[in-house]
Design a protein that fits this description.
Helix content is 71%, strand content 0%. It is mainly α. Helix 6 packs antiparallel against helix 7.
Length: 212
């Protein structure tokens, strides 16, 4: 929301916490224009904040006159104080430490699960480096990924490897293993049913669905 307000030159209405007083007499055109801009900026900022919240929250902030007051309330409502944020981040870090990759998961599913936790920690204002995520993945993936890890250890400095490189390497091995498994399964089936024509089978199956 801060980025959104900054993009439209509205953040000053929150940051400067100013009130727009009534215009005195005998003002020049520039002063009138400036007064109008400040008043409009304040109204637009409040409108953006009002539009971003639920109806329940809106009823609690609709009476605030200053955009700064609205912002401070929303910070308290959604972020909480420093002690609460500290407890939340500790709970999330503990949750991160307990994560292990399941045999049925793909690398993408597992990494997404870790990143969801990490992003919550970062949103609370706590630092969480990519190297920590890399180390976590290295020690918690199943044994079937050891070959890929060994290759990386022999060819690259693991302290400098990026998270994307780590995930890409594991995903490549995962895809290769899946392709080999599919070829083995197909070979076994072909050996058991030598006259089986896979293309013809699926063509007939597709026609059968259309007739239904």
């Amino acid at each position: 929301m801060k980025t959104y307000l900054e993009a439209f030159n509205l953040w000053k209405a929150v940051e400067e916490d100013y009130e727009v007083h009534s215009l005195p007499t005998n003002l020049i055109v520039a002063q009138i224009r400036n007064h109008k801009e400040r008043k409009t900026r304040k109204s637009k900022t409040k409108a953006c904040l009002f539009a971003a919240v639920s109806t329940t929250i809106f009823t609690r902030i609709m009476s605030f006159k200053l955009a700064k007051d609205v912002w401070d309330y929303l910070k308290k409502e959604y972020v909480g104080d420093e002690r609460i944020r500290g407890m939340q981040s500790l709970n999330l870090i503990q949750e991160f430490a307990l994560q292990r990759m399941k045999e049925s998961e793909t690398i993408k599913e597992y990494s997404n699960r870790l990143l969801r936790i990490v992003n919550k920690v970062r949103l609370l204002g706590k630092s969480f480096t990519d190297s920590t995520i890399v180390e976590k993945i290295l020690v918690t993936v199943p044994k079937k990924y050891e070959a890929s890890i060994t290759t990386l250890e022999n060819t690259k400095d693991l302290s400098k490897i990026t998270l994307i490189e780590r995930l890409n390497a594991l995903q490549v091995q995962e895809q290769r293993r899946l392709m080999r498994k599919n070829r083995v399964t197909e070979g076994v089936y072909q050996a058991k049913y030598p006259d089986f024509d896979k293309k013809k089978f699926f063509r007939k199956k597709k026609l059968g669905f259309k007739q239904q």
